[in-house]
Each structure stands twice: as structure tokens, then as C-alpha cells.
Design a protein that fits this description.
Elements (H helix, E strand, L loop, with lengths): L1 H10 L4 E7 L2 E7 L1 E3 L4 E2 L6 E2 L4 H15 L8 H5 L12 H5 L36 H4 L16 H15 L3 H13 L20 E4 L2 E4 L15 E2 L1 H12 L6 H7 L4 E5 L4 E3 L4 E3 L5 E7 L2 E8 L4 E7 L5 H9 L1
Antiparallel strand pairs: 1-2, 1-14, 3-4, 5-8, 6-7, 9-10, 10-11, 11-12, 12-13, 13-14
Helix pairs in contact: 2-6, 2-7, 7-8
InterPro entries: Beta-lactam-related (IPR001466), Beta-lactam/transpept-like (IPR012338), Diverse_Enzym_Activities (IPR050789)
Protein name: Beta-lactamase family protein
């Protein structure tokens, strides 16, 4: 398999890391450069941003607060938001937000903004350092449909969840994720790193502009939130899946609820359904985390029945997809 994988990676100009966990054995291999200017190669321990892969972390954080009694699936967002974000319908609940059924307007509507490399945030990226500062990004987008009536993927909804989690717990969202997800799962290399930091083993995201490589520093918030922006390694992703399905982050009952289809419609590539924070394969038990941004691409598929995990993570916008397709085949 390795020779074929190398050929697929070369053809895709893949820069990133591949890892497969199966039957107690691990295959991991790195390709390309973590920093193109200095010629620093990626390694299997390089830390990459995973874009929307963080939504699983956000969902687990929120569910842990539900288990503690600080929230419920039926908690209305308005109860926590108060007068903030007045265009969000008063009927929107935590469950609607977790399942992408809220209908709230989205600052990054992926049905409209099809070119992720062209998107520019409406506020200076350096102003987005903590969750409350995202209010300026979230505000001003009208409700799109009645809450709970259908599925529509919504990035802004997961930033709202981060805001809700922070307010009800009294703990900054970034710290909350570390305490409630990363620590119980043993994720030592996962954190919301600043894009302008000199983080150890941190890959720089790249995208082609006018025939040359540019960094993605002006395309994304300086520090991520509930919708994207956490950095991790392929080993930590595998550890996350193990801890999740072992019930070490939330209870087994809540694991079952999170990987139950909350949207019966098949959505996205490969006919995927959606649970609470996780994509679900429509015809198998496989559970997925997927992310893509300017200079970021990520896909991890876990099969609970066999314990097999296939993760591909990269520091370009689209290099992951052909490699992931090869692994899934």
C-alpha cells in the first residue's frame, strides 16, 4: 500500500501526514513541508490546524456541560445570549445548533462561499483572539428558516455554541476545551494556537496565489473558536477517537446520542448524515470529522466496530482529499 500511497501523494502535491490505526498496529507517514521558506519538513508529530474538525471538540465540550447540568439540549440560545445577536430566532436551542438545524444566518455560508481561498473575514483577523470578540463577526445575518425544520451546515452556529459554553461555565472557551476534552483524552499536542505564534512543530498553512505559495495568515482568525482553528497531530486525533468511544470524555449514553443521526437527509460528499458535532456515514457505522479552510485540509474516519481510524491532515487547502479517497478505497 505504501508505494501506491506515495504515488497518490506525489500526484496531489500533498503536504501533510497520513495515519492508519488498525488491529493494534499503526502506519504513519509525513510528506511535504511544514515551512516552505525554511524548508522544514513535516513529520508525523507536526501540529496542524484542522478547520471544522474542531466542531467535534466543541460538541463534546457542550455535552459535558449538559452532563453537569449547566445546559440541556432544549436550552434556548436566547436564554444565554440575552440581547446579543438579536437576529437569532428565540426558538433556537442548543440541540438545533449542535445538529446544524438552527436556521441562523451564517457569516461563512458554504452554500454561497464556494472558494475558501477567496474568503476574507469582515473584521481584522488580529481582533479575533477570544470568543466574545466573535460577536462582531456573527451579528447582522438574518434567520434563514424556522429552527428544527431542516439541515443546513452552519459555521456560525458552532461559534454561538462556544459563546454559550463560555458564558454558562464562566471559563474561557479555549480553556474549557482543553479541560473537558483534551485532558481526559490525553491530547498533549492539541491546543488553540495563535497563527502568529512560534509554536513548536507547528505547520504553516499555504495556498497558491498568482502562481506562488502564500501563507494563510490573512484568511483566518488569529485564534480559532468553536467552528474551527484548533491545532493537533494525527496521534492526538487517534487518541480522541479512542477516548470518545471509551466514554472517557462524555458518558457512553451521550456517545450514542452524538453519533445517532439527527438529520435523516443525506448531505455532502458520500451521502453523509449528521449527529451532534460529527458526520455519520449513511450506510455504515463510520463516524467522521472533516475540515477545510484556506491552507488547511483534514479528514478523519473512525470505524467503531473494528476500531480502525484513517486520518489525513495537511497544510494546503485541497491536498488531503485525493489521499483520503485512496485510503477509503
Amino acid at each position: 500500500m505504501e508505494d501506491e500511497l506515495d504515488e497518490v501523494a506525489r500526484a496531489a502535491d500533498f503536504s501533510g501526514v497520513v495515519r492508519v490505526d488498525r488491529d493494534g498496529q499503526v502506519f504513519a507517514k509525513a510528506y511535504g513541508l511544514a515551512h516552505r521558506g525554511y524548508g522544514i519538513p513535516n513529520t508525523v508529530d507536526t501540529r496542524f490546524a484542522i478547520a471544522s474538525g474542531v466542531k467535534g471538540f466543541t460538541a463534546l465540550t457542550v455535552v459535558s456541560l449538559i452532563e453537569q447540568g449547566l445546559l440541556s439540549l432544549s436550552t434556548r440560545a436566547r436564554e444565554v445570549l440575552g440581547d446579543d445577536l438579536p437576529l437569532i430566532d428565540d426558538a433556537v436551542t442548543v440541540e438545533h445548533l449542535l445538529a446544524h438545524r438552527s436556521g441562523i444566518g451564517d457569516f461563512y455560508d458554504e452554500d454561497v462561499l464556494t472558494d475558501i481561498t477567496a474568503y476574507v473575514l469582515p473584521v481584522p483577523v488580529q481582533n479575533l483572539r477570544d470568543t466574545e470578540q466573535y460577536l462582531a463577526v456573527l451579528d447582522g445575518y438574518p434567520q434563514q428558516f424556522e429552527p428544527g425544520t431542516r439541515f443546513k451546515y452552519c459555521n456560525g452556529g458552532f461559534v454561538v455554541l462556544a459563546l454559550i459554553a463560555e458564558r454558562v461555565s464562566g471559563v474561557p472557551f479555549h480553556d474549557l476545551v482543553l479541560q473537558r476534552v483534551c485532558e481526559p483524552a490525553g491530547l498533549a499536542d492539541t491546543d488553540f494556537l495563535r497563527s502568529d505564534s512560534l509554536g513548536e512543530r507547528m505547520a504553516v498553512g499555504y495556498l497558491p496565489v498568482d502562481g506562488e505559495w502564500r501563507t494563510n495568515v490573512f484568511h483566518l482568525p488569529i485564534r480559532g473558536s468553536g467552528d474551527g482553528g484548533i491545532y493537533t497531530t494525527v496521534a492526538d486525533v487517534s487518541a480522541l477517537w479512542r477516548a470518545f468511544f471509551a466514554g472517557r470524555i462524555v458518558s457512553p449514553e451521550w456517545v450514542a446520542e452524538m453519533v445517532r443521526p439527527h438529520s435523516d437527509e443525506t448531505e455532502g460528499p458520500g451521502s453523509l448524515r449528521y449527529g451532534l458535532g460529527f458526520w455519520l456515514h449513511a450506510s455504515s457505522s463510520a463516524v467522521l470529522l472533516v475540515g477545510g479552510d484556506a491552507g488547511v485540509s483534514f479528514k478523519s474516519v473512525h470505524e467503531p466496530e473494528s476500531g480502525t481510524t484513517r486520518t489525513v491532515i495537511g497544510n494546503t487547502s485541497d491536498g488531503v482529499w485525493p489521499v483520503a479517497r485512496f485510503l477509503n478505497s
